[in-house]
Amino acid sequence: MTSAPSAYSTRRAVEESDLAACFQVRKDVFVGEQNVPEEIEYDAHDATAVHVLAVAPDGTALGTGRLLHGEAASGRTGGDLTVGSLGRLAVTREARGLGVGAALVRALEDEAGRLGLAAVDLHAQTHALGFYERLGYVAYGPEFPDAGIPHRAMRRDIRPA
Known about the structure:
CATH topology: Aminopeptidase
Radius of gyration: 15 Å
Shape: globular
Distance between the termini: 37 Å
Oligomer: single chain
Largest sheet: 7 strands, mixed
Order of helices and strands: EHHEEHEHEHEE
CATH architecture: 3-Layer(aba) Sandwich
Number of strands: 7
Number of domains: 1
Strand content: 25-35%
């Protein structure tokens, strides 16, 4: 891509091609750029998570994120089944700074609302705390490492749709 797209849309990833695009963005960002071992990037939760995808008008994948809910999220939310767990948020290098990450967070919150969840938790890389704070998330608890990268837990209350 020679220039960054100015328009994009987000959608729930349901088709195999959308899911493959989500996984490729994650591989490019987390494995390729951040050196997260590929064997820990993908997990059993991918099968039951809600995935969202941001795409350019030409169909190019720009970013992705996933939402865990129910039992799959309980280990990250202190066992609270009314809280979803947002994660694996990744935006391609070409699309950074265009609002794609914020649009993906809002799309995941919309999906959480459709599931009747009351709040969304996430584990933010510490360099991204300001990004999530601007979206209404509040950090709690101590800093901790995940895949060798410092993180903090954050939460935002949402209203079910």
